[in-house]
Design brief:
The chain has helices at about 65-70, 130-135, 165-170, and strands at about 25-35, 40-50, 75-85, 90-95, 100-105, 110, 115-120, 120-130, 145-160, 175-195, 195-200, 210-215, 220-225, 230, 245-250, 250-255, 255, 260-270, 270-275, 285-290, 295-305, 310-315, 320-325, 340-355, 355-375. With about 375 residues, the chain is mainly β.
Length: about 375
């Protein structure tokens, strides 16, 4: 199966069976907007995170609240996460009880709350957190700030990981964490108001991304890299029909951790380069590393299959990143140093394998890279 295969069933809510009592499901969106007067650029993220519907109470159940921890309560809520990277950065969280929202049981998915909405084609919402509230509520795991958004979406290119997230393996709850990128290249249209400034978001310059994860736990290490802001060094031209996406770390199947593995894809002007370890016939091999110094994070990934090779070198300044916060469905917060950014830069080298070895297809400059890395606390 080609990886650019759309499948909105995989975008539906997956909290069924045992995942209703210990499971999460989230829809992540990232994109760039421009201040309406100064045209200042700013990258944003919006996420809708569902957790443990069968444990719902009248109010959201927050797992990091001390009294809930003492009672052994697991979290249960819709968490709307939104914010921006760079100067004046913030991650903002707003929580809803399951009894305050409606979630479609089939597809296409819809999440509807008092004043938040998410679907395949539209996002709406707002969050306002004061400095006092952020300081007095550490269980919210967020910063202070204000953000509202009204956006339409066109998910143009998909990264479908294939059998690994198929209906049989969904039903078996085989993996601890699943992934589907219905829109690894997504065109956004609309506006964002962030801390009093209005930013316009247009399909031509939004460099948008949309995916989802679900399961009973997260992965460690946790790596993600993606961008569709790509320019060929071979021709000097913008690659308008291209995008790459890499994600994973150390997947668990039936509670057994596998070796460090990544899923990778490059859609290069209509040609697919697939580095999906679950497709055994491809013979995928991966090496990756993450390092950091006081100012910068560095990712290096080398992936090969029987036909091609992709070398990815990415950097992102820590001043342009956040340490993003999540709690697991069991109520534990294991990721406490999960770097996340939307302004990474780097170079990707793409090769075809010929009779005389690897031949360079293109060397590509990438900007507006979504980037992430973290490992569980020891």
């Amino acid at each position: 199966m080609m990886f650019n295969t759309h499948d909105i069933q995989r975008d539906s809510c997956m909290l069924k069976g045992l995942l209703r009592k210990q499971g999460y499901d989230w829809w992540w969106h990232s994109f760039t907007g421009y201040e309406e007067n100064t045209h200042e650029e700013r990258s944003f993220f919006v996420e809708y995170f569902l957790c443990n519907p069968d444990l719902a109470e009248e109010k959201p159940v927050l797992g990091q609240l001390e009294e809930n921890r003492e009672k052994g309560k697991k979290p249960s809520y819709l968490m709307v996460k939104a914010g921006s990277w760079g100067k004046d950065h913030a991650q903002l969280h707003r929580f809803y009880s399951w009894k305050e929202i409606e979630v479609s049981e089939s597809f296409p998915y819809v999440i509807l709350g008092q004043d938040c909405y998410a679907s395949e084609t539209e996002l709406r919402g707002n969050i306002s957190i004061s400095e006092v509230e952020a300081r007095n509520h550490p269980e919210w795991m967020c910063d202070a700030g204000e953000m509202s958004w009204r956006l339409s979406l066109d998910k143009q290119i998909a990264f479908n990981v294939g059998y690994g997230a198929s209906k049989p393996l969904q039903d078996a709850e085989a993996f601890a964490m699943y992934w589907h990128a219905e829109g690894m290249k997504t065109a956004y249209l609309g506006d964002v108001i962030y801390n009093g400034k209005r930013y316009l978001v247009t399909p031509e310059k939004c460099y948008g991304y949309a995916d989802k994860n679900w399961g009973r736990d997260f992965t460690s290490p946790w790596l993600w890299l993606s961008s569709n802001d790509l320019v060929s060094r071979k021709t000097g031209e913008r690659l308008s029909n291209s995008v790459f996406d890499i994600g994973g770390g150390r997947p668990k199947i039936y509670m057994v951790p596998l070796d460090r593995r990544l899923l990778g894809a490059f859609y290069y002007e209509g040609k697919e380069y697939d580095f999906n370890f679950s497709k055994l016939h491809l013979g995928v091999k991966t090496m990756f590393s993450f390092t950091e110094d006081e100012e910068t994070c560095y990712w290096k990934v080398v992936q090969t299959n029987h036909h091609a090779r992709m070398e990815t070198d990415i950097t992102c300044k820590k001043k342009d990143m956040l340490l993003v916060n999540y709690e697991s469905p069991d109520g534990k917060k294991r990721h406490n140093r999960l770097w996340n950014g939307g302004n990474g830069t780097g170079v990707i080298r793409l090769y075809d394998k010929g009779k005389n070895g690897y031949e360079l297809v293109d060397e590509i400059e990438a900007n507006h890279i979504g980037c992430e890395y973290g490992e569980y606390d020891e």
